[in-house]
Design goal:
Distance between the termini: 72 Å
Strand order of the largest sheet: 6-5-4-11-12-15-13-14
Oligomer: single chain
Protein name: FkbM family methyltransferase
CATH architecture of one domain: 3-Layer(aba) Sandwich
Number of strands: 15
CATH superfamily of one domain: Vaccinia Virus protein VP39
Strand content: 15-25%
Order of helices and strands: HHHHEEEHHEHEHEEEEEHEHHEHEEHE
InterPro entries: FkbM_mtfrase, SAM-dependent_MTases_sf
Structural class: alpha/beta
Helix content: 25-40%
CATH topology of one domain: Rossmann fold
Radius of gyration: 29 Å
């Protein structure tokens, strides 16, 4: 069979067909006519559009790197102004480093510039901090948009202090942050993180548990306790097969005098007890914004707690796009049983 059929006659009677090579070149460069030409024109247009989008994205990345420096990220505010979510996450992730330490902790860098000690045995938040350098980025971005310079904030259930440090960076030297963490090991790591980042003039750290009323001792489950032979090991005991620790209890309405601007409640298991100790604080804080971790299956009476909150504030949850969206008690008791809630009379940014 000949490789070039240019000498074969065309059965249609319109003359000889072009050879195989000319026909292939005509298809490749869309110089012919008919459906092949139309298809190739569309393909060329799509490729041209994609090249344009790629060039635009490259220019945005170069502008962001020039503004904040790929290796020297200055502030969270600059990051948020400088690019979209993928760009910011990439810049933060590019700055991650980890250093295992003999005391059972791992030192890492979060949010591109802060140093943080985490528990080497933690399988929850620590892997995200160690590998990505951030935690719940959609919530992180929301907090950055809704906390201002000079404000007063409380972080309940601070753990290592991820949100504590974030809040301290946002309120600045003109503001103040109180961090509550009842677990002795986590409280020790939290204090180290605050001092390490030079934030001890802005942040006060207390080893107390937020409850509905003041108590001398509150027993708290302790998932993380540090090294078994460490100096804090004696602070933990077993109760009904679970490791627990003890701390004083305080109602938030009695914890800080005056009004509060921002309150983060990171203890989903004790959220209803914490909310029961809020009424007086809410009354004297007209601009209060509450960010609360909610889990319907971990609260003692989730429905009653939501009803009490809904009587004061519109119910909203933080969606994956970092925006606060309306929800109902039925939603939170049904399909959306785990959520980060935003509660405030102020419209969020």
């Amino acid at each position: 069979m000949p490789k070039d059929d240019s000498n074969l006659t065309d059965s249609s009677g319109d003359g000889p067909r072009p050879g195989l090579v000319p026909r292939f070149l005509s298809w490749l460069f869309a110089t012919g006519s008919g459906s092949a030409r139309s298809t190739m024109h569309r393909t060329h247009e799509e490729l041209f559009r994609m090249r344009g989008e790629l060039a635009t994205l490259r220019a945005e990345m170069e502008a962001l790197q020039a503004a904040v420096g790929r290796r020297d990220i200055a502030t969270l505010d600059e990051l948020l102004r400088g690019g979209n979510r993928r760009q910011v996450e990439a810049l933060i992730r590019d700055r991650t480093q980890t250093v295992p330490l003999p005391d059972g902790s791992v030192l890492c860098r979060v949010l591109g510039r802060f140093k943080m000690f985490t528990d080497a045995a933690d399988g929850g938040i620590a892997p995200h901090l160690l590998l990505d350098g951030y935690w719940e980025y959609w919530v992180t971005e929301f907090v950055c948009r809704n906390v201002a310079r000079g404000e007063t904030a409380i972080d309940v259930g601070a753990l290592y202090g991820y949100y504590t440090i974030l809040l301290a960076d946002l309120v600045g030297p003109e503001g103040k942050v109180a961090a509550l963490e009842p677990n002795p090991w986590l409280h020790w790591l939290l204090r180290r993180n605050i001092v390490l980042n030079g934030l001890n003039t802005i942040v006060s750290v207390r080893r107390v548990a937020a409850t509905e009323a003041a108590r001398d001792v509150v027993t708290i489950p302790a998932m993380l306790a540090g090294p078994a032979d460490g100096p804090l090991a004696r602070e933990y005991s077993l109760h009904e097969g679970r490791r627990v620790c003890a701390a004083p209890g305080v109602a938030l309405q009695d914890f800080e005098p005056g009004s509060i601007d921002f309150l983060r409640i990171g203890c989903a298991a004790s959220a209803d007890s914490i909310v029961a100790g809020l009424p007086a604080l809410i009354d004297r804080s007209p601009g209060l914004r509450i960010l609360m971790e909610f889990d319907a299956d971990r609260c003692r009476d989730a429905g009653a707690m939501l009803a009490a909150l809904a009587a004061r504030y519109p119910l909203r949850f933080i969606d994956g796009d970092s925006r606060a969206k309306p929800c109902t008690i039925e939603d939170l008791m049904g399909p959306r049983r785990i959520a980060t809630l935003f509660l405030s009379g102020i419209e969020p940014c």
